[in-house]
What does this fold into?
Amino acid sequence: MSKSARKSVLPANKTHGYEFGGPLGAFAASSLLPIVCYAAAFLCNETSGCPIPSTLSPRTLTLKKLKEETGWPQDGILGLASLRVTGFVLAYYLFSLVLQAALPGLVVQGVQLRSGAKLEYKFNAFSSAVTVLLIAAVGTYLHGPDFALWTFIWDNYVQLITVNLGIAFFLASFVYHRSFSVKAGNHHKRELALGGHTGNLVYDWFIGRELNPRITIPVVGTVDIKAFCELRPGMLGWVLLDLAFIAHQYKLYGGISDSIVLITLFQIVYVFDALWMEPAILSTMDITTDGFGFMLAFGDLVWLPFIYSLQARYLAVYPLHLGPQGALGVLAVQGFGYWIFRSANNEKNRFRTDPKDPRVAHLQYMKTKSGNKLLTSGWWGFSRHPNYLGDWIMAWSYCLPTGVAGYLVKHGSPAVLPLGDMIDGEGIVSGGFLKQQVLQGDARGWGMLITYFYVLYFAILLIHRELRDEEACKRKYGDDWEEYKKKVRWRILPGIY
It folds into this structure.
């Protein structure tokens, strides 16, 4: 597209300012975060260990050894992709679209746009996910851990990253190009995101230029691309990855560890809670403020399913048995975090929907000049983002079941282990005969860089999101926000932050 053709009838927004480090930060994130996904896949594997042995003694590292230990494809970089895998992934996306169109759902209007209009949304992500999992359950009942879906995911893990990354790049580029057809006052209710049309190509492509890009597909109908990606292919993909890892552990050990069961249950609860509460996304920053660009496309379709499932992938190779006390401890962490997270979100949503609801009618609030009401008691008087605290506490329950992580794979041992030892991670076996041993050795503790990465990343994400929320609220409420901060002093955790 020529420079003149890219000019929108709507002028670039220079007043909003850059986020994420501006164009340089957008370029760095778009380039480096995909590499992190591949690095996690190659540096923690069942070929040599987690992390690979050479990282424990860097002086011994050679390119040849690195390729051997990481399981680098024999045909090089071309092996990162596959037409066959691409076809199946596209079929999965198409099936998700068909389920959204075919299954009954709740039709609601979104928040009011700057033009005064409201978009209509159809929500049935919960029933769509249940349908997919019922199909998977039938397949598992008939074929056990050898069900084609589970083996396909495990055998093509890296290629799945590549395909979904390609889809994210395509969607970001497609909606960026198409955003230049947005015209002021159009009857399609299309708008540009305030922070997404700065005039810088790289930044706008990353952050998202159009607020709610929609397309019409024959038979399927109108699809809100951002809302579809938010809770459908990636979130359900996260669950499917976890279940594939459980199936793989069962194939290797003839049993399933309590650690991988707990992590998967926690994450299923988290996902299905989000799917059940799907209309709540209409009040989130992702929907109301951010445009749809590479940031959201990559986050929804690649980062979330493949990074958030790292712990289950680790345990598929090195099972850890927690025992009753360990399991109860992890359950307590998860339950406490979920109680804060769901209670806070329910309180906010009920107050927004019906302030006279008996469950929230007693709450104190501050009325702003714009007519909005800001809660100053209850969970939202505790801190300005109590739900973030609950979310982060839950993140620990995803990582703690991996223990002091790290393992090395020893090949070719002729030893035989009793069935009872297999589930404790003493070796990968089939029918009781040890084909290769998986022991911690010198890798003990180093694997935590991978299995506990999620906790560190999530803390950074939540703090960054909170800072973005602060800036957005300052712009929206002005002096009222400064007054509100005097009433609710703490951002996330009282006494600390």
Remarks:
- The longest helix spans residues 323-353.
- Confidence is low (pLDDT under 50) at residues 1-9, 414-434.
- Strands lie at 49-50, 106-109, 120-123, 214-217, 221-224, 365-367, 373-375, 407-411, 428-430, 433-439.
